[in-house]
Specification:
This protein has 248 residues and is of the alpha/beta class. It has two domains: 11-55 and 64-109, no CATH class; 125-243, Rossmann fold (3-Layer(aba) Sandwich). It has seven helices and eight strands; from the N terminus they run E-E-E-H-H-E-H-E-H-E-H-E-H-E-H. The chain has helices at 70-91, 95-109, 133-145, 156-165, 183-192, 209-212, 231-243; strands at 11-14, 19-27, 30-36, 125-129, 149-153, 171-174, 200-205, 223-226. Strand 1 and strand 2 form a beta hairpin. Helix 1 (70-91) runs antiparallel to helix 2. It is globular, with a radius of gyration of 21 Å. It starts with 10 loop residues before the first strand and ends in a 5-residue tail after the last helix.
Length: 248
């Protein structure tokens, strides 16, 4: 049996399916779970499964289900049903049953080939600065799957040491609350250094720019992404920056 203990704000990741479950809040016997899944994976409350669900009409010239084979559609359906049940079991405090259901979801995905990861128009290098190891590795892993070369640092001090001794990256993804050297102090040090003029620095934090006392703009962070992070939105913004013509 696979047994997973998670605290609020921690995640369970099913990389083959592209699904991330985040524990948002635990209150008495109710667990609030956030689920991020690709468009082809339906996420519904269990009580809706007894009601007829109308499929979206297929686009002209495109088969239903995004062209997925019957076998793949069946596997995804089994996994999706299991995830719906898992969510309800977690909400009702049935942790042991939820772990069995999670095993069923994983079993449905075994042997399922993932589609090739989309490649960026241009290669990029990113420094991920996050003191929580699990979050740091997950984010770097997701970006690597998109073809982005990632290095990581556990706090601002490690990040500054890396920047002093290595080639300049295209992006710095910066958490705000870290030991030794936090996000605002790290940002200040980078912005003071003429070597890093124009370096794109994105904040990824559970707080807000106002709480951190920072501005969003050329002298502060270039963009602010509040946790829980939407990785797809982050990647889209990174791609926009990479494909933007360089100023004359």
């Amino acid at each position: 049996m696979l047994v997973i203990s998670r605290r609020p704000e921690e995640r369970i990741v099913l990389p083959t399916l592209g699904v991330t479950l985040q524990i948002l809040r635990v209150q008495k016997n109710v667990v609030r779970v956030g689920i991020e899944a690709p468009p082809e994976v339906r996420v519904l409350r269990e009580e809706l499964l007894d009601k007829p669900l109308a499929d979206a009409p297929a686009r002209p010239g495109k088969p239903p289900g995004n062209g997925l084979s019957h076998a793949v559609r069946n596997r995804l359906n089994k996994a999706t049903l299991a995830l719906h049940l898992l969510q309800r079991q977690l909400e009702s405090g049935r942790a042991a049953a939820a772990m069995l259901t999670l095993e069923q979801a994983i079993a449905a995905l075994e042997g399922l080939e993932a589609p090739p990861a989309p490649k960026p128009t241009k290669r990029c290098r990113t420094l991920v600065v996050e003191d929580e190891q699990n979050e740091r590795e997950l984010l770097a892993g997701l970006l690597n799957m998109h073809g982005c070369e990632c290095v990581t640092a556990a706090d601002g001090a490690e990040a500054l040491a890396y920047l002093d001794n290595n080639a300049r990256p295209d992006f710095v993804l910066l958490d705000m609350r870290m030991p030794r050297c936090d996000g605002p102090r790290t940002l200040e040090q980078i912005r003071r250094d003429p070597r890093f003029v124009g370096l794109k620095i994105f904040a990824i934090s559970g707080t807000t720019p106002e709480d951190a006392g920072l501005k969003v703009g050329p002298q502060g962070v270039d963009a602010w992404f509040q946790k829980p992070l939407n990785p797809r939105q982050l990647w889209e913004v990174m791609q926009q920056c990479l494909n933007r013509p360089a100023p004359n």
